[in-house]
Amino acid sequence: xxxxxxxxxxxxxxxxxxxxxxxxxxxxxxxxxxxxxxxxxxxxxxxxxxxxxxxxxxxxxxxxxxxxxxxxxxxxxxxxxxxxxxxxxxxxxxxxxxxxxxxxxxxxxxxxxxxxxxxxxxxxxxxxxxxxxxxxxxxxxxxxxxxxxxxxxxxxxxxxxxxxxxxxxxxxxxxxxxxxxxxxxxxxxxxxxxxxxxxxxxxxxxxxxxxxxxxxxxxxxxxxxxxxxxxxxxxxxxxxxxxxxxxxxxxxxxxxxxxxxxxxxxxxxxxxxxx
Length: 275
Ligand code: PAF
Prior knowledge:
The chain has helices at 8-16, 33-45, 73-82, 93-96, 117-120, 124-139, 151-163, 193-199, 201-210, 215-224, and strands at 3-5, 22-27, 48-53, 87-89, 143-147, 169-173, 229-237, 248-258, 261-271. It is α/β, with parallel strands linked by helices. 35% of the residues lie in helices and 21% in strands. The longest helix is centred in the middle third of the chain and has 16 residues, at 124-139. The protein has two domains: 3-173, Rossmann fold; 188-268, Pantoate-beta-alanine ligase, C-terminal domain (Pantoate--beta-alanine Ligase, Chain: A,domain 2, 2-Layer Sandwich). The structure holds pantoate. Pantoate is lined by residues 26-28, 56, 59, 128, 131-132, 150, 153.
């Protein structure tokens, strides 16, 4: 039976009762099968699993979709129960930021936090790393599972754990895709039929990139040809987010808007020698 707590005091008590190795899966709720894959992985690598459900205002800019972000706590708790999650921490904004956000001490990402998502959404990674480090301190996990869909976030969290000596094993969970190839995201529910059809240029671009010796050009051509997509970036970087190598394994990263919905995706590619 899943124990559900909303305050830090309740969490500390419930956490102390968890046996063995503990894995945490931080989420913003609106759980889907992509999260389910994270929970399953967490259960494989740990004896006890904590899921956090918190829509973190610190990682949204004023013009972004904080108010509109889907909140489905009852369904989220049902999924956690079905997946055998031991403990859910679902705090309020006031519980997490009792002194407000003005003057808050934050965790600032290094230069890798300024590219790609960080360039398009200034302050995003400060918001993410600050809340993730708070959630780590509160849940005291041995391991944490993050989806590869947010590839840059995963890299930033890994880097924070190393740089701040947090001693937590960060486990990457492969991206879960819908039947048509679209990466699962809580934001997919916002897509109209036409927007969803346009969004499918993203998995098509990935497929073309993976079959091409020039993944960036192959993906770019498909994305730019789709009038229903507003491409924010398409980039190839090294797997650690550094400059792309001249040849060999690398990562393709894409962000694009279909209507008002911003989608991101990424996949492994090989430069000069398709996989
Ligand atoms: O990936 C997310 O859902 C969020 O960025 C996270 C890691 C839960 C932090 O709010």
